[in-house]
Amino acid sequence: MFYLYHLCSNLSFKLKYEIMARFDKIAVLNKIGSTGMVPVFYHKDAEVAKKVVKACYDGGVRAFEFTNRGDFAHEVFAEVVKYAAKECPEMAMGVGSIVDPATAALYLQLGACFVVGPLFNPEIAKVCNRRLVAYTPGCGSVSEVGFAQEVGCDLCKIFPGDVLGAKLVKGLLAPMPWSKLMVTGGVEPTQENLTSWIKAGVFCVGMGSKLFPGDKVAAEDWAYVTAKCKEALGYIAEARAKAFCGENGTGLSGKTEDLTWMQKRCSGMKSQRKILTRRFPSETAGSGQWFSAAQQTRC
């Protein structure tokens, strides 16, 4: 840990504090909330990582999680952040797989706009809160989400999603409708899978290998990655429209359980309209139209 803090100090001197988070917590949450998906990726080759980030950006992604999973991963991240600042100006670059505050500090100094971890460590929250950087910890229970929220974690990660399931999300939101949850693990870029998570009530999903198959990355088929991102974001937008406006897009089904669920969700939305802004892509226009979830549901 001492080594990492010492390294951070040296980096801050060399960079003269020029590289810091380009987007603060509120901006990052808006970006994540507007698209509903955060790609999760790691590669030891910075050039490959740059191309993946650009492919995702071209596909509509605006928040990207680079995981800290290999030797010298922070050096790769530093190169990718500089590249994204020029080639993907609206992309918020974040770091994942962070389990201790020293590593979080290292990546913050390199420009990470948000920090994600597989577990909840309140010491990381202190480091991130000091810079107004979003910290999304991995939580496996209602209590962990509650403890994380107490120390300022606005967005919590349900992990591993394929083990915990959509029922945990729906069950948690019943008594805690204000919660913003990102599910990672077991998320696939298919309509059925994404619809199930959105219907359960997640704020967004984190998606890794299913979005960038190894063979596609090896073949440098970046067009595939771009197309898959567009496809997944389309499924998410469609699922959100149905979740908030009913299956036919005009209103709720009328079932008692649906109305109760929506009332609980609305109670948590009224004070969070900015962060809960949604983007519903137009089928006829190149750009989407912005609506707030509260307006969509007439809360």
Structural notes for this entry:
- There is one protein chain.
- It is globular, with a radius of gyration of 19 Å.
- Helix 3 packs across helix 12 and helix 10 packs across helix 12 (222-245).
- Strands 3-2-1-9-8-7-6 form a seven-stranded parallel beta sheet, with helices on both faces.
- The chain has helices spanning 2-15, 25-35, 46-58, 73-87, 101-109, 122-130, 142-150, 161-164, 166-173, 191-200, 214-218, 222-245, 256-269, 293-297, and strands spanning 37-41, 63-67, 92-96, 114-116, 134-136, 138-139, 155-158, 180-184, 204-207, 277-280, 289-292.
- The relative contact order is 0.12.
- The longest helix has 24 residues, at 222-245.
- It contains 14 helices and eleven strands.
- By secondary structure, the chain is of the alpha/beta class.
Give the % helix.
Answer: 40-55%
Uncertain stretches of 5 or more adjacent residues: 11-18, 249-263, 266-299
The SS-based structural class is alpha/beta
Across the major sheet, the strand order is 3-2-1-9-8-7-6
What string gives the helices and strands in order?
HHEHEHEHEHEEHEHHEHEHHHEEH
Shape category: globular
Kindly estimate the percentage of residues that lie in beta strands according to DSSP.
Answer: 5-15%
Average predicted local confidence, pLDDT: 84
Count of alpha and pi helical runs: 14
Oligomer: single chain
The value of Rg in angstroms is 19 Å
How many strand elements? 11
Distance between the termini: 48 Å
Q: Report the sheet with the most strands, covering strand number, pairing sense and barrel closure.
A: 7 strands, parallel
